[in-house]
Every structure is written in C-alpha cells, then in structure tokens.
Design a protein that fits this description.
Blueprint: H1 3-17, H2 22-33, H3 36-52, H4 62-81, H5 92-95, H6 98-101, H7 105-111, H8 114-122, H9 126-137, H10 142-149, H11 153-182
Helix pairs in contact: 2-3, 2-4, 3-4, 4-10, 8-11, 9-11, 10-11
Length: about 180
C-alpha cells in the first residue's frame, strides 16, 4: 500500500470518526467564544488540528478527542485574542448561596425562558460555562468532561455544582427584575 492509499484511508477514517462531531465542535466553540464568527474560526482551526494530528488518535470515539481539541484551540485563541480573559476569578461569597441550593434547580430552569437561560450561560465564568455546556448541551459524562478539560473528576463535579448554582441565581435575578419591570 502506497502513500496515496494511506492518505485515502486516513481521510476515510477521519470522516467516519471525527467529522460527524463537527456540529458539536461548533456548538462548544460558540458557547465558549459567545460569538458565531469567532466560533467558526475556533471550530475550523480545531478541525485542521484534528486532521493534522489524526495519526496520533487511538480509539473509536472521536467526539471526546475532537472536543478536547476544540477546548484547547479556544484556550490558545483566548490567550492570543484577549489577554484580559486569562485570569478566571471566583468569589466564593458572590457565587455561593445556601438558600438557593435548597431550591430545586429544575423548577427555576423550567420557569425560565430560553433567552434567560442563554443569557445566564453566556455570563458564567469560562471554567463553569464549559462544564455546563459539555454536560447539559453535549450530554457528556463526567468522565468525558474530565478528559476534555484535563481536570480531576471531583473538580468537574464541583464546577458543575457551582455552575448550576450560579445559573439558578442568575435566572432568579433576571426573573425578579422582569417581574418588577412588568409589575
């Protein structure tokens, strides 16, 4: 088998294992960048990287592998494009609320409009936004999220818990504001 056959085989395997996850790659990039144009750039660069390094891919699940590349591409992009986003701050007092933790999150989300949820997710700090979107929108397992983010499983679980709490708080604040404005 010559170089041409090897390349054709690589393309066929890439198309079968990675290409089906292009929409997921774009969705993750969109939520991370908060901008369609930037998301297209990040997703395109991630796909190019994925193809370039596809010879190193082992396994049959291209989704987690591709989403890891999307995340890393985004992190490189954000460092290059906006150095002020490099530091992620977490204020424990601001982002923890024992009372809201007792309220069932599904009830809050159920009552929220899609626009409120989208706004709340887009305004989460990046480290929480990424685990929320990987879990809730892409329906990845905790283990898969840990692999993508290169974080311990406990960190993923903690970020999901805190991110969900922040979402409840944000949606609750938006709802109260809308009631005051309309009432």
């Amino acid at each position: 088998m010559g170089p041409s056959a090897d390349f054709s085989e690589k393309i066929a395997r890439f198309e079968a294992l990675v290409l089906p996850h292009l929409n997921a790659a774009y969705n993750v990039a969109r939520w991370m960048t908060r901008n369609s144009s930037d998301a297209e750039d990040v997703a395109q660069e991630a796909m190019l990287r994925a193809f370039r390094f596809f010879d190193n891919f082992r396994g049959d699940d291209g989704r987690v592998w591709l989403l890891t590349i999307v995340r890393n591409t985004y992190l490189t992009w954000i460092r290059r494009e906006s150095p002020q986003h490099n530091s992620l701050e977490f204020d424990e007092l601001l982002h923890s609320d024992v009372e809201s933790a007792l309220t069932p999150e599904l009830e809050v989300v159920r009552q929220a409009t899609a626009q409120q949820v989208r706004f709340a997710i887009e305004n989460l700090p990046a480290e929480y936004r990424e685990v929320i979107l990987l879990r809730e929108l892409e329906q990845l397992s905790y283990k898969e999220i840990a692999a993508i983010t290169e974080s311990p499983l406990g960190t993923v679980m903690s970020r999901l818990s805190r991110g969900r709490s922040m979402l409840r708080q944000s949606i609750g604040k938006q709802s109260r504001t809308e009631v005051k404005q309309n009432g």
